[in-house]
Amino acid sequence: MLDIQKKLTNSFYAMLSLPATAVGFALSTQIAALSWILSKNYNLDIHQVAFVWLAGPLAGIFGQVIVGMISDNVWFLGGRRRPFIMVGGIVGALMFLALPQIGVISEATGITNIILIASIIALLLDLSINVTFNPARSLIADLTPEGEKRTSGYIWMQIISGVFGVLAYFLSVLFGNETLLLIAAILVFIFAVFPALFIEEKRELVGSHDEVSSKVTLPQLIRMIYPLYGFLLFGVFSLFFHFFQTELAGIHNWLLTGSLVYTVLVGIYLIRKGKSDQSDETEFKKIMLAHTFTWVAFQSMFVMTGFFIDKQIIPNMDLSAVFANQFAEYLTGEVQSADRTTGNIVSLGFLILNAIGALFPLVLSFFAKKYGRVMTYTSSLAFSAAGYFLIAFYATAEVDFYLGMFLVGFGWAAVISIIFSIVTERVDQKQMGLFMGIFNLAVVLPQMMSQGVANLISQTGNYQLLYILCGLFIVISMVFWLFVREPRSTSRQTSAPAGH
Protein backbone atom coordinates (compact mmCIF):
# COMPACT_ATOMS: atom_id res chain seq x y z
CA MET A 1 0.00 0.00 0.00
CA LEU A 2 1.27 3.46 -0.88
CA ASP A 3 2.18 5.65 2.08
CA ILE A 4 -0.17 8.40 0.85
CA GLN A 5 -3.04 5.91 1.03
CA LYS A 6 -2.20 4.89 4.60
CA LYS A 7 -2.22 8.54 5.69
CA LEU A 8 -5.19 9.58 3.51
CA THR A 9 -3.23 12.57 2.23
CA ASN A 10 -4.59 15.10 -0.23
CA SER A 11 -2.41 13.57 -2.96
CA PHE A 12 -4.13 10.22 -2.35
CA TYR A 13 -7.56 11.88 -2.50
CA ALA A 14 -6.51 13.41 -5.83
CA MET A 15 -5.39 10.03 -7.22
CA LEU A 16 -8.53 8.37 -5.84
CA SER A 17 -10.58 10.97 -7.75
CA LEU A 18 -9.09 10.24 -11.19
CA PRO A 19 -11.36 7.31 -12.18
CA ALA A 20 -14.41 9.44 -11.36
CA THR A 21 -12.72 12.30 -13.23
CA ALA A 22 -12.52 10.07 -16.30
CA VAL A 23 -16.30 9.65 -16.07
CA GLY A 24 -16.84 13.38 -15.49
CA PHE A 25 -14.72 14.31 -18.48
CA ALA A 26 -16.56 11.72 -20.57
CA LEU A 27 -19.94 13.14 -19.55
CA SER A 28 -18.85 16.73 -20.24
CA THR A 29 -17.56 15.70 -23.65
CA GLN A 30 -20.81 13.89 -24.37
CA ILE A 31 -22.86 16.94 -23.35
CA ALA A 32 -20.72 19.29 -25.43
CA ALA A 33 -20.52 17.14 -28.54
CA LEU A 34 -23.32 14.56 -28.86
CA SER A 35 -26.37 16.77 -29.45
CA TRP A 36 -24.30 19.15 -31.60
CA ILE A 37 -22.98 16.39 -33.87
CA LEU A 38 -26.38 14.75 -34.26
CA SER A 39 -28.24 17.99 -35.01
CA LYS A 40 -25.64 19.79 -37.13
CA ASN A 41 -23.86 16.96 -38.93
CA TYR A 42 -26.78 14.55 -39.34
CA ASN A 43 -29.81 16.91 -39.17
CA LEU A 44 -31.65 15.06 -36.40
CA ASP A 45 -34.50 17.00 -34.76
CA ILE A 46 -35.04 17.55 -31.03
CA HIS A 47 -37.20 14.42 -30.61
CA GLN A 48 -34.67 12.20 -32.41
CA VAL A 49 -31.75 13.61 -30.41
CA ALA A 50 -33.64 13.05 -27.15
CA PHE A 51 -34.25 9.44 -28.21
CA VAL A 52 -30.53 8.84 -28.76
CA TRP A 53 -29.89 10.26 -25.29
CA LEU A 54 -32.15 7.54 -23.86
CA ALA A 55 -29.17 5.20 -24.31
CA GLY A 56 -27.62 6.69 -21.16
CA PRO A 57 -30.49 5.96 -18.78
CA LEU A 58 -30.93 2.49 -20.24
CA ALA A 59 -27.25 1.78 -19.66
CA GLY A 60 -27.53 3.15 -16.13
CA ILE A 61 -30.53 1.01 -15.21
CA PHE A 62 -28.74 -2.21 -16.05
CA GLY A 63 -25.10 -1.19 -15.78
CA GLN A 64 -24.88 0.47 -12.40
CA VAL A 65 -27.15 -1.83 -10.39
CA ILE A 66 -25.74 -5.05 -11.84
CA VAL A 67 -22.12 -3.89 -11.82
CA GLY A 68 -22.52 -2.53 -8.31
CA MET A 69 -23.94 -5.82 -7.06
CA ILE A 70 -21.20 -7.86 -8.75
CA SER A 71 -18.37 -5.59 -7.63
CA ASP A 72 -19.44 -6.02 -4.00
CA ASN A 73 -18.89 -9.76 -4.22
CA VAL A 74 -15.94 -10.43 -6.54
CA TRP A 75 -12.19 -10.16 -6.26
CA PHE A 76 -10.34 -10.03 -9.56
CA LEU A 77 -7.07 -8.44 -10.73
CA GLY A 78 -6.38 -7.42 -7.13
CA GLY A 79 -9.63 -5.59 -6.48
CA ARG A 80 -13.42 -5.57 -6.48
CA ARG A 81 -13.78 -2.16 -8.18
CA ARG A 82 -10.55 -2.14 -10.24
CA PRO A 83 -11.60 -4.52 -13.07
CA PHE A 84 -14.77 -2.57 -13.85
CA ILE A 85 -13.01 0.80 -13.77
CA MET A 86 -10.36 -0.41 -16.21
CA VAL A 87 -12.73 -2.14 -18.63
CA GLY A 88 -15.10 0.84 -18.61
CA GLY A 89 -12.24 3.22 -19.38
CA ILE A 90 -11.04 1.16 -22.34
CA VAL A 91 -14.51 0.77 -23.90
CA GLY A 92 -15.31 4.46 -23.32
CA ALA A 93 -12.13 5.54 -25.11
CA LEU A 94 -13.01 3.37 -28.11
CA MET A 95 -16.54 4.81 -28.33
CA PHE A 96 -15.22 8.38 -28.34
CA LEU A 97 -13.10 7.40 -31.33
CA ALA A 98 -16.19 5.92 -33.02
CA LEU A 99 -18.63 8.81 -32.39
CA PRO A 100 -17.35 11.20 -35.10
CA GLN A 101 -17.17 8.27 -37.55
CA ILE A 102 -20.91 7.55 -37.66
CA GLY A 103 -21.02 8.23 -41.39
CA VAL A 104 -18.02 5.98 -42.05
CA ILE A 105 -19.53 3.21 -39.94
CA SER A 106 -22.81 3.59 -41.86
CA GLU A 107 -21.04 3.16 -45.20
CA ALA A 108 -18.90 0.25 -43.97
CA THR A 109 -21.81 -1.69 -42.47
CA GLY A 110 -24.47 -0.76 -45.01
CA ILE A 111 -26.74 0.43 -42.20
CA THR A 112 -28.35 3.64 -43.43
CA ASN A 113 -30.29 4.37 -40.23
CA ILE A 114 -28.11 7.05 -38.59
CA ILE A 115 -30.27 7.06 -35.44
CA LEU A 116 -29.64 3.34 -34.98
CA ILE A 117 -25.87 3.65 -35.32
CA ALA A 118 -25.76 6.73 -33.09
CA SER A 119 -27.89 4.97 -30.48
CA ILE A 120 -25.63 1.90 -30.45
CA ILE A 121 -22.50 4.00 -30.04
CA ALA A 122 -24.17 6.15 -27.38
CA LEU A 123 -25.38 3.01 -25.59
CA LEU A 124 -21.89 1.47 -25.52
CA LEU A 125 -20.41 4.79 -24.43
CA ASP A 126 -22.94 5.13 -21.64
CA LEU A 127 -22.46 1.51 -20.62
CA SER A 128 -18.75 2.19 -20.25
CA ILE A 129 -19.48 5.32 -18.22
CA ASN A 130 -21.87 3.46 -15.95
CA VAL A 131 -19.57 0.46 -15.59
CA THR A 132 -16.87 2.86 -14.42
CA PHE A 133 -18.84 5.41 -12.40
CA ASN A 134 -20.41 3.17 -9.76
CA PRO A 135 -17.14 1.41 -8.82
CA ALA A 136 -15.27 4.75 -8.93
CA ARG A 137 -17.70 6.35 -6.44
CA SER A 138 -17.95 3.21 -4.33
CA LEU A 139 -14.15 3.03 -4.12
CA ILE A 140 -14.07 6.37 -2.31
CA ALA A 141 -16.57 5.11 0.24
CA ASP A 142 -14.66 1.80 0.58
CA LEU A 143 -11.40 3.53 1.49
CA THR A 144 -12.57 6.42 3.69
CA PRO A 145 -14.27 6.45 7.12
CA GLU A 146 -17.69 8.06 7.57
CA GLY A 147 -17.94 11.74 8.28
CA GLU A 148 -15.45 14.48 7.46
CA LYS A 149 -12.86 12.31 5.71
CA ARG A 150 -15.42 10.72 3.42
CA THR A 151 -16.90 14.14 2.65
CA SER A 152 -13.35 15.29 1.82
CA GLY A 153 -13.01 12.34 -0.55
CA TYR A 154 -16.11 13.33 -2.49
CA ILE A 155 -15.23 17.01 -2.38
CA TRP A 156 -11.84 16.19 -3.91
CA MET A 157 -13.61 14.03 -6.48
CA GLN A 158 -15.73 16.95 -7.58
CA ILE A 159 -12.89 19.48 -7.56
CA ILE A 160 -10.64 17.36 -9.80
CA SER A 161 -13.54 16.14 -11.93
CA GLY A 162 -14.98 19.65 -12.17
CA VAL A 163 -11.70 21.17 -13.31
CA PHE A 164 -11.47 18.65 -16.12
CA GLY A 165 -15.14 19.20 -16.91
CA VAL A 166 -14.32 22.87 -17.44
CA LEU A 167 -11.35 21.81 -19.55
CA ALA A 168 -13.65 19.73 -21.77
CA TYR A 169 -15.80 22.75 -22.67
CA PHE A 170 -12.72 24.95 -23.06
CA LEU A 171 -11.22 22.43 -25.48
CA SER A 172 -14.55 22.30 -27.32
CA VAL A 173 -14.34 26.05 -27.93
CA LEU A 174 -10.60 25.95 -28.65
CA PHE A 175 -10.38 23.01 -31.03
CA GLY A 176 -13.95 22.06 -31.90
CA ASN A 177 -16.01 19.06 -30.87
CA GLU A 178 -14.36 16.57 -33.22
CA THR A 179 -10.93 17.19 -31.67
CA LEU A 180 -12.46 17.15 -28.19
CA LEU A 181 -13.65 13.58 -28.81
CA LEU A 182 -10.09 12.47 -29.62
CA ILE A 183 -8.71 14.16 -26.49
CA ALA A 184 -11.47 12.55 -24.43
CA ALA A 185 -10.51 9.11 -25.71
CA ILE A 186 -6.93 9.60 -24.50
CA LEU A 187 -7.74 11.13 -21.10
CA VAL A 188 -10.51 8.68 -20.26
CA PHE A 189 -8.17 5.76 -20.94
CA ILE A 190 -5.32 7.20 -18.84
CA PHE A 191 -7.44 8.36 -15.87
CA ALA A 192 -9.46 5.16 -15.64
CA VAL A 193 -6.73 2.57 -16.14
CA PHE A 194 -3.52 3.79 -14.51
CA PRO A 195 -4.68 5.08 -11.07
CA ALA A 196 -6.56 1.82 -10.47
CA LEU A 197 -3.24 -0.04 -10.66
CA PHE A 198 -1.76 1.90 -7.71
CA ILE A 199 -4.73 2.03 -5.33
CA GLU A 200 -4.93 -0.91 -2.95
CA GLU A 201 -8.45 -2.07 -2.12
CA LYS A 202 -9.64 -3.72 1.08
CA ARG A 203 -10.25 -7.45 0.71
CA GLU A 204 -12.94 -7.37 3.42
CA LEU A 205 -15.46 -4.60 4.09
CA VAL A 206 -17.18 -4.18 7.44
CA GLY A 207 -20.92 -3.51 7.46
CA SER A 208 -21.76 -0.27 9.24
CA HIS A 209 -25.57 -0.22 9.42
CA ASP A 210 -28.19 -2.79 10.29
CA GLU A 211 -31.20 -0.82 9.13
CA VAL A 212 -30.77 -1.74 5.47
CA SER A 213 -30.41 -5.47 4.94
CA SER A 214 -27.00 -6.69 3.82
CA LYS A 215 -28.69 -9.27 1.58
CA VAL A 216 -31.05 -7.74 -0.93
CA THR A 217 -33.12 -10.08 -3.07
CA LEU A 218 -34.75 -9.07 -6.36
CA PRO A 219 -38.25 -8.78 -4.80
CA GLN A 220 -36.79 -6.61 -2.02
CA LEU A 221 -35.06 -4.44 -4.61
CA ILE A 222 -38.31 -3.99 -6.55
CA ARG A 223 -40.17 -3.02 -3.36
CA MET A 224 -37.38 -0.68 -2.27
CA ILE A 225 -37.61 1.47 -5.39
CA TYR A 226 -41.37 2.06 -5.23
CA PRO A 227 -40.79 5.86 -4.98
CA LEU A 228 -39.44 5.61 -8.53
CA TYR A 229 -42.29 3.58 -10.07
CA GLY A 230 -43.78 6.64 -11.78
CA PHE A 231 -40.52 7.50 -13.50
CA LEU A 232 -39.94 3.84 -14.39
CA LEU A 233 -43.38 3.57 -16.00
CA PHE A 234 -42.92 6.68 -18.11
CA GLY A 235 -39.37 5.65 -19.03
CA VAL A 236 -40.61 2.37 -20.48
CA PHE A 237 -43.43 4.23 -22.24
CA SER A 238 -40.87 6.62 -23.80
CA LEU A 239 -39.16 3.75 -25.58
CA PHE A 240 -42.40 2.69 -27.27
CA PHE A 241 -43.55 6.26 -27.89
CA HIS A 242 -40.63 6.92 -30.21
CA PHE A 243 -41.88 4.21 -32.59
CA PHE A 244 -45.64 4.69 -32.14
CA GLN A 245 -46.04 8.44 -31.71
CA THR A 246 -49.34 8.71 -33.55
CA GLU A 247 -50.96 5.79 -31.72
CA LEU A 248 -49.71 6.83 -28.25
CA ALA A 249 -49.94 10.62 -28.58
CA GLY A 250 -53.29 10.74 -26.79
CA ILE A 251 -51.95 9.28 -23.55
CA HIS A 252 -48.45 10.83 -23.53
CA ASN A 253 -49.22 13.98 -21.53
CA TRP A 254 -51.64 12.19 -19.23
CA LEU A 255 -49.06 9.53 -18.39
CA LEU A 256 -46.33 12.14 -17.91
CA THR A 257 -48.54 14.09 -15.51
CA GLY A 258 -49.67 10.95 -13.70
CA SER A 259 -46.08 9.79 -13.20
CA LEU A 260 -45.10 13.13 -11.65
CA VAL A 261 -48.22 13.26 -9.45
CA TYR A 262 -47.60 9.70 -8.23
CA THR A 263 -44.04 10.60 -7.26
CA VAL A 264 -45.14 13.71 -5.37
CA LEU A 265 -47.78 11.72 -3.46
CA VAL A 266 -45.23 9.05 -2.54
CA GLY A 267 -42.95 11.83 -1.34
CA ILE A 268 -45.67 13.16 0.95
CA TYR A 269 -46.24 9.63 2.25
CA LEU A 270 -42.51 9.19 3.00
CA ILE A 271 -42.42 12.52 4.85
CA ARG A 272 -45.28 11.41 7.06
CA LYS A 273 -43.75 7.96 7.54
CA GLY A 274 -40.39 9.50 8.44
CA LYS A 275 -41.87 11.14 11.54
CA SER A 276 -42.27 7.74 13.21
CA ASP A 277 -39.81 5.64 11.21
CA GLN A 278 -36.35 7.20 11.23
CA SER A 279 -34.59 4.16 9.78
CA ASP A 280 -31.84 4.43 7.20
CA GLU A 281 -34.06 2.72 4.64
CA THR A 282 -36.75 5.41 4.94
CA GLU A 283 -34.16 8.18 4.72
CA PHE A 284 -32.58 6.49 1.70
CA LYS A 285 -35.95 6.42 -0.07
CA LYS A 286 -36.59 10.10 0.73
CA ILE A 287 -33.18 11.03 -0.71
CA MET A 288 -33.84 8.98 -3.85
CA LEU A 289 -37.20 10.63 -4.40
CA ALA A 290 -35.90 14.16 -3.84
CA HIS A 291 -33.00 13.48 -6.19
CA THR A 292 -35.27 12.38 -9.04
CA PHE A 293 -36.71 15.84 -9.59
CA THR A 294 -33.24 17.39 -9.56
CA TRP A 295 -32.11 15.12 -12.36
CA VAL A 296 -35.14 15.69 -14.58
CA ALA A 297 -34.08 19.33 -14.57
CA PHE A 298 -30.38 18.82 -15.24
CA GLN A 299 -30.80 16.13 -17.90
CA SER A 300 -33.40 18.20 -19.77
CA MET A 301 -30.99 21.12 -19.71
CA PHE A 302 -28.10 18.99 -21.01
CA VAL A 303 -30.09 17.52 -23.89
CA MET A 304 -32.06 20.55 -25.08
CA THR A 305 -30.08 23.70 -24.30
CA GLY A 306 -28.75 23.86 -27.86
CA PHE A 307 -32.31 23.98 -29.21
CA PHE A 308 -33.19 26.69 -26.65
CA ILE A 309 -30.23 28.78 -27.83
CA ASP A 310 -31.28 28.34 -31.46
CA LYS A 311 -34.88 29.42 -30.86
CA GLN A 312 -34.68 31.90 -27.96
CA ILE A 313 -31.25 33.54 -28.09
CA ILE A 314 -29.89 33.44 -31.65
CA PRO A 315 -32.88 35.25 -33.27
CA ASN A 316 -32.24 38.26 -30.99
CA MET A 317 -28.52 38.48 -31.78
CA ASP A 318 -26.22 40.08 -34.27
CA LEU A 319 -24.14 37.03 -35.18
CA SER A 320 -21.13 39.22 -35.90
CA ALA A 321 -21.07 40.27 -32.23
CA VAL A 322 -21.46 36.90 -30.48
CA PHE A 323 -19.06 36.83 -27.54
CA ALA A 324 -18.68 33.05 -27.65
CA ASN A 325 -17.56 33.26 -31.29
CA GLN A 326 -15.17 36.10 -30.50
CA PHE A 327 -13.78 34.09 -27.62
CA ALA A 328 -13.30 31.06 -29.90
CA GLU A 329 -11.70 33.23 -32.59
CA TYR A 330 -9.31 34.74 -30.03
CA LEU A 331 -8.26 31.28 -28.84
CA THR A 332 -8.03 29.59 -32.23
CA GLY A 333 -7.29 32.41 -34.64
CA GLU A 334 -10.02 31.02 -36.92
CA VAL A 335 -13.16 32.81 -38.07
CA GLN A 336 -16.21 31.05 -36.61
CA SER A 337 -19.00 30.10 -39.01
CA ALA A 338 -22.65 30.73 -38.23
CA ASP A 339 -23.13 26.98 -37.83
CA ARG A 340 -20.72 26.96 -34.90
CA THR A 341 -22.47 29.79 -33.03
CA THR A 342 -24.90 27.60 -31.11
CA GLY A 343 -22.20 25.09 -30.21
CA ASN A 344 -19.87 27.85 -29.00
CA ILE A 345 -22.55 29.46 -26.82
CA VAL A 346 -23.53 26.09 -25.33
CA SER A 347 -19.89 25.19 -24.67
CA LEU A 348 -19.15 28.53 -23.02
CA GLY A 349 -22.31 28.30 -20.90
CA PHE A 350 -21.47 24.81 -19.69
CA LEU A 351 -17.87 25.87 -19.15
CA ILE A 352 -19.18 28.48 -16.70
CA LEU A 353 -21.47 25.90 -15.07
CA ASN A 354 -18.61 23.45 -14.57
CA ALA A 355 -16.20 26.14 -13.38
CA ILE A 356 -18.56 26.87 -10.50
CA GLY A 357 -19.06 23.13 -10.08
CA ALA A 358 -15.30 22.69 -9.72
CA LEU A 359 -14.59 25.55 -7.32
CA PHE A 360 -17.70 25.82 -5.17
CA PRO A 361 -17.24 22.44 -3.38
CA LEU A 362 -14.51 24.12 -1.32
CA VAL A 363 -17.12 26.56 -0.03
CA LEU A 364 -19.65 23.75 0.37
CA SER A 365 -17.22 21.89 2.60
CA PHE A 366 -17.01 24.87 4.96
CA PHE A 367 -20.77 25.36 5.17
CA ALA A 368 -21.39 21.61 5.51
CA LYS A 369 -19.24 21.51 8.64
CA LYS A 370 -21.01 24.52 10.13
CA TYR A 371 -24.63 24.01 9.10
CA GLY A 372 -24.81 20.34 8.06
CA ARG A 373 -24.63 18.65 4.70
CA VAL A 374 -28.37 18.41 4.06
CA MET A 375 -29.05 22.10 4.69
CA THR A 376 -26.00 23.08 2.63
CA TYR A 377 -27.18 20.87 -0.23
CA THR A 378 -30.74 22.22 -0.15
CA SER A 379 -29.54 25.82 -0.09
CA SER A 380 -27.29 25.16 -3.10
CA LEU A 381 -30.27 23.92 -5.10
CA ALA A 382 -31.98 27.28 -4.50
CA PHE A 383 -29.31 28.95 -6.64
CA SER A 384 -30.02 26.51 -9.48
CA ALA A 385 -33.75 27.26 -9.31
CA ALA A 386 -33.00 30.99 -9.48
CA GLY A 387 -30.72 30.44 -12.47
CA TYR A 388 -33.30 28.42 -14.36
CA PHE A 389 -36.05 30.98 -13.82
CA LEU A 390 -33.69 33.80 -14.80
CA ILE A 391 -32.96 32.09 -18.13
CA ALA A 392 -36.63 31.23 -18.68
CA PHE A 393 -38.07 34.71 -18.13
CA TYR A 394 -35.22 37.13 -18.78
CA ALA A 395 -32.72 35.51 -21.16
CA THR A 396 -33.03 37.40 -24.41
CA ALA A 397 -29.32 38.03 -24.78
CA GLU A 398 -26.19 35.89 -24.61
CA VAL A 399 -25.03 37.36 -21.28
CA ASP A 400 -28.35 36.49 -19.61
CA PHE A 401 -27.81 32.83 -20.46
CA TYR A 402 -24.28 32.88 -19.00
CA LEU A 403 -25.51 34.53 -15.79
CA GLY A 404 -28.20 31.88 -15.42
CA MET A 405 -25.67 29.09 -15.93
CA PHE A 406 -23.44 30.73 -13.32
CA LEU A 407 -26.24 30.42 -10.75
CA VAL A 408 -27.19 26.90 -11.82
CA GLY A 409 -23.57 25.90 -11.23
CA PHE A 410 -23.89 26.30 -7.44
CA GLY A 411 -26.52 23.57 -7.28
CA TRP A 412 -24.62 21.44 -9.78
CA ALA A 413 -21.56 21.54 -7.50
CA ALA A 414 -23.60 20.03 -4.66
CA VAL A 415 -25.41 17.48 -6.83
CA ILE A 416 -22.17 15.84 -7.90
CA SER A 417 -20.20 16.09 -4.66
CA ILE A 418 -21.59 16.15 -1.11
CA ILE A 419 -24.73 14.17 -1.88
CA PHE A 420 -22.66 10.99 -2.09
CA SER A 421 -21.31 11.46 1.41
CA ILE A 422 -24.92 11.79 2.61
CA VAL A 423 -26.13 8.68 0.78
CA THR A 424 -23.23 6.41 1.78
CA GLU A 425 -24.06 6.86 5.47
CA ARG A 426 -27.57 5.47 4.92
CA VAL A 427 -26.57 2.09 3.45
CA ASP A 428 -24.67 -1.07 4.38
CA GLN A 429 -20.92 -0.60 3.83
CA LYS A 430 -20.55 -4.17 2.58
CA GLN A 431 -23.18 -3.53 -0.10
CA MET A 432 -21.93 -0.10 -1.17
CA GLY A 433 -21.76 -0.95 -4.87
CA LEU A 434 -25.29 -2.33 -4.90
CA PHE A 435 -26.82 0.63 -3.11
CA MET A 436 -24.85 3.11 -5.19
CA GLY A 437 -26.39 1.36 -8.19
CA ILE A 438 -29.87 1.54 -6.67
CA PHE A 439 -29.36 5.22 -5.89
CA ASN A 440 -28.29 5.78 -9.48
CA LEU A 441 -31.80 4.76 -10.53
CA ALA A 442 -32.81 8.13 -9.06
CA VAL A 443 -30.59 9.62 -11.76
CA VAL A 444 -31.21 7.47 -14.83
CA LEU A 445 -34.99 7.06 -14.56
CA PRO A 446 -35.50 10.84 -14.32
CA GLN A 447 -33.18 11.20 -17.29
CA MET A 448 -35.70 9.19 -19.29
CA MET A 449 -38.35 11.70 -18.22
CA SER A 450 -36.45 14.32 -20.22
CA GLN A 451 -37.91 12.62 -23.31
CA GLY A 452 -41.32 13.71 -22.03
CA VAL A 453 -40.09 17.27 -21.56
CA ALA A 454 -38.74 17.22 -25.11
CA ASN A 455 -42.09 16.04 -26.43
CA LEU A 456 -43.96 18.80 -24.58
CA ILE A 457 -41.64 21.42 -26.01
CA SER A 458 -41.95 19.94 -29.49
CA GLN A 459 -45.76 19.97 -29.23
CA THR A 460 -46.00 23.55 -28.01
CA GLY A 461 -43.03 25.01 -29.87
CA ASN A 462 -42.35 26.97 -26.67
CA TYR A 463 -38.66 26.56 -25.85
CA GLN A 464 -38.98 28.89 -22.88
CA LEU A 465 -40.91 26.05 -21.27
CA LEU A 466 -37.66 24.06 -20.94
CA TYR A 467 -36.21 26.30 -18.24
CA ILE A 468 -39.55 26.99 -16.56
CA LEU A 469 -39.96 23.25 -16.00
CA CYS A 470 -36.33 22.90 -14.90
CA GLY A 471 -36.87 25.55 -12.24
CA LEU A 472 -40.10 23.95 -11.03
CA PHE A 473 -38.48 20.52 -10.74
CA ILE A 474 -35.65 21.95 -8.63
CA VAL A 475 -38.15 23.68 -6.32
CA ILE A 476 -40.02 20.40 -5.81
CA SER A 477 -36.74 18.67 -5.02
CA MET A 478 -35.87 21.34 -2.46
CA VAL A 479 -39.18 20.89 -0.68
CA PHE A 480 -38.53 17.17 -0.21
CA TRP A 481 -34.93 17.75 0.86
CA LEU A 482 -36.22 19.91 3.72
CA PHE A 483 -37.53 16.68 5.31
CA VAL A 484 -34.32 14.63 4.93
CA ARG A 485 -32.49 14.07 8.21
CA GLU A 486 -28.84 14.95 8.70
CA PRO A 487 -26.42 11.96 8.63
CA ARG A 488 -25.37 10.66 12.03
CA SER A 489 -21.67 11.55 11.71
CA THR A 490 -22.54 15.20 11.10
CA SER A 491 -24.94 15.19 14.04
CA ARG A 492 -22.20 13.81 16.28
CA GLN A 493 -19.74 16.44 15.11
CA THR A 494 -22.11 19.37 15.57
CA SER A 495 -23.26 18.16 19.00
CA ALA A 496 -19.76 17.48 20.35
CA PRO A 497 -18.84 19.68 23.35
CA ALA A 498 -16.63 22.63 22.53
CA GLY A 499 -12.93 22.05 23.17
CA HIS A 500 -13.07 18.28 22.65
Task: Characterise this structure.
It is a single chain. With 500 residues, the chain is mostly helical. It has one domain: MFS general substrate transporter like domains (Growth Hormone, Chain: A, Up-down Bundle). The protein has 21 helices and no strands. It has helices spanning 3-6, 10-41, 46-53, 55-71, 82-98, 102-109, 114-143, 148-175, 177-198, 218-224, 229-243, 245-274, 280-313, 323-332, 341-371, 373-394, 398-415, 418-423, 432-460, 464-481, 488-495. The chain starts with a helix and ends in a 5-residue tail after the last helix. 56% of the residues are buried.
Outline:
The chain has 500 residues and is an all-alpha fold. It has one domain (3-200, 220-491): Growth Hormone, Chain: A. It has helices spanning 3-6, 10-41, 46-53, 55-71, 82-98, 102-109, 114-143, 148-175, 177-198, 218-224, 229-243, 245-274, 280-313, 323-332, 341-371, 373-394, 398-415, 418-423, 432-460, 464-481, 488-495.
Task: Name the features.
500 residues, mainly alpha, Growth Hormone, Chain: A, 21 helices, disordered C terminus
Count of DSSP helices?
21
Strand content: under 5%
- How many beta-strand runs? 0
CATH topology: Growth Hormone, Chain: A
CATH architecture term: Up-down Bundle
What percent of the residues sit in helical stretches (DSSP H or I)? over 70%
Mean pLDDT: 83
Largest sheet: none
Unreliable segments of 5+ consecutive residues = 208-213, 492-500
Radius of gyration: 22 Å
Name the structural class: mainly alpha
What is the H/E string? HHHHHHHHHHHHHHHHHHHHH
Give the count of structural domains.
1
Quaternary organisation of the protein chains: single chain
What's the CATH class, please? Answer: Mainly Alpha
